[in-house]
Amino acid sequence: MARFKLKTGVLDNPKSGVPYTCAKFSPQGDVVALCDDTDVLLYNIESGKVSIVSTTHGEPMSDLCWSPDSKCIATASDDFTISIMHIEYGELHHLVGHTAPVTALAYTSKGNLLCSASMDESIKVWDVLTGTLLRTMSAHSEPVVSIDIPHCDPSIISSGSYDGLIRIFDTATGHCLKTLTYDKDWQSENGVVPISQVKFSFNGRYLLVKSLDGVLKLWDFVQGRVIRTFKLGDSNQLRYSCGMDIFYPPDESTAPLVVSGTEQGDIYVWNCQNKQLLQHIQDKHRASPVMSISCRNSYMCSLSLNGECYIWEWTNE
Amino acid sequence: MANLLLQDPFSVLKEFPEKLSQVIETPLQSSCVKFSLYGDYLAVGCSNGAIIIYDMDTGNPITMLGNRGGSHVRSIQSLDWSSSGRYLVSSSRDWYVKVWDLRSPGHPLKQMKFNSPLWNCRWNNLNPWQCIATAFEQTNALLIDFQHDIPSFKKLCCIEENANSGDYGHTLVFCIHPRYQNLILTGTSKGWIKFYKMNNDGIFLIQQEKFANSNAKHMIISQAGDKIAVNSSDRTIRQYSLEVSSDLSVIRLSLEHKYQDVINKLQWNSIFFSNNSAEYLVASTHGSSAHELYLWETNTGTLVRVLEGPEEELLDIDWNFYSMCIASNGLETGNVYVWSIVIPPKWSALAPDFEEIEENVEYQEKEDEFDQVDELEQQQELDQAEEVLIDLKTKEDFDVRGNDLTLPRFIIPINYEDILMIKRWERL
């Protein structure tokens, strides 16, 4: 039966006391970029070579995002700024404008616009060529912690916020087009359930959403309906926004998989079609929250807060 | 694109743009404008030979063709993007036709010099690297082949035509039939339309018809290939319905409407059809008194809209059907004006439990509004919704306006050296 098999570990001796938040595959899938304090580590999967790109940030980073041409990395830092780093040439732009730590970044597929979300409750759209701010969307009432733009459709941006709302914005105008809510949970006695992660499907028709109670829901956002729910036993209020991603197995016969990390250091893999739990990865992240999951080609990369980072390969063995 | 699915369908499906939404300020005098297939980019040709590419998302220029040498030195007469979006062909009064690769826009990829200024040049999608052009005082249109290292050209004419002494004037305009791409229509300075068929055996003149006693300035054909319009120097736009038999042997052309400015008797600068079967025709006027684009309904021939905004005469027109934008450039400032469909924000999108209403509505309780819903039943319904098969991978083939999304979409690479260079200048 096909499953994820450990291929390699990335960081040999992570720094202690530094929170590790984000590791992402490049669009071409040959390099993993990893936030390490104020540096970005680039790990080449085939050669195992590590190189370091230093940023000009004064505080650690929450998120990084590859440009679609794999040549640049944008980083979101707690020092309220965003840096766009060219891997060879160094820093291209230092984007200043947010008034609180920047939490998430997303490039459009054309690579000409960069969107950022921040604890200041706003989403900003930047022109990558000139480094100027094009527009600000202020439609949330709590920190915005996750944004995503479909791979094939740069016309919309989705956002998830601690106010429990998922909103879809028009990239060109900045208008809110749709709001998805957990209508039942929204009215519950415990208050709202903060949203922690949003991710569009490859074709941009569905939106996978993770909330801070550990539940994942796949939305048909045009209809405004939940079409799949992935749940683990008892849900409770979590502290960390743990990573998730959608994995598209190279063999066409297998349905796409939902991969999600937990605060206990476990990774769960579900079949998105029949919601069957396919794999449960334990004992690898030493009970440290899995902060980031990134999938590309036949690989999956997981990173926990303590800096342990592993590359997994989807195999039929 | 998904933003259209989430907006008011009646606004999204409007058939023509109404509001001036963007003014692109160009530093030079512009002569022609052309959108890329998906409307991502706008190429602006200038009277000094420069060609600037604008990113429509940001409204900023992203590259200038030939900025490392080899650009045109006289006014650009026409621009055309290849179907892949990667190549652009330009024709100019400096007697050159140049092909540009947007992956490396610093120099022209290929070029060819003629014996006179060029009017118009466009890709012929039937053969890769083949263009059709018209040039000053040339009896026939030209077929240019850029496939080989040294480009070559031949005349678009048939053998009998050379023997025939009839004087039809010079060929000024042409268009390619969208359905039968080997059918080419040309218009001449003496008011003739000629229909040519190209195939492996050669080029054949199928038919020729006189439409007026003056020269053709523009000739356009609808996407469906069932209508053509000819703008001529006698201040008239003539719209014909076109019927072509599938073997291209019989062509029937019948006049549907003539568009004229009855009061001012103005010339028309440029004309453009709307998408599919061309329900609308838009035109710009010559002369300093008119600053608008006129939009007619083609079935009835009535003027339905005047697109206002600019304070100068408008020259060229391009209409992109993906972004539903009309772009037109001004004579005096060179600025490019863009009209688009502006959809007002929907406040109910922010709060899904609210509904926007036009006026006060008397509250009426719905049949099931306060019904006790069995929790179990509700859960079953939700569970059922989760059993529907889903597809996370397959992309849509068409957008809501019916445009084909499977065509290639070339993304012009970002030139990072330019960013660094500009940064360095700023620091100095």
Automatic annotation (TrEMBL), chain A:
Record-level GO cellular component terms: Set1C/COMPASS complex
Keywords on record: Repeat, WD repeat
KW Repeat (keyword) present: yes
Matches recorded under PROSITE patterns: WD_REPEATS_1, WD_REPEATS_2, WD_REPEATS_REGION
GO molecular-function terms, A-Z: histone binding
WD repeat start and end residues: 95-136, 137-179, 195-229
Domain WDR5-like beta-propeller: 20-312
UniProt-listed SUPFAM superfamilies: WD40 repeat-like
Protein name per UniProt: LAFE_0G15126g1_1
Originating species: Lachancea fermentati
Highest classification ranks of the organism: Eukaryota, Fungi, Dikarya, Ascomycota, Saccharomycotina
From TrEMBL, chain B:
Pfam families, sorted: WD40
Subcellular location: Nucleus
Entry keywords, A to Z: Nucleus, Repeat, WD repeat
Major subcellular location class: nucleus
WD repeat boundaries on the chain: 69-104
Cross-referenced InterPro entries: RBBP5/Swd1, WD40/YVTN_repeat-like_dom_sf, WD40_repeat_CS, WD40_repeat_dom_sf, WD40_rpt
SUPFAM superfamilies with a match to the protein in the record: WD40 repeat-like (SSF50978)
UniProt KW Secreted keyword: no
One Gene Ontology cellular component: Set1C/COMPASS complex
Protein name, per record: LAFE_0D02828g1_1
Organism lineage: Eukaryota, Fungi, Dikarya, Ascomycota, Saccharomycotina
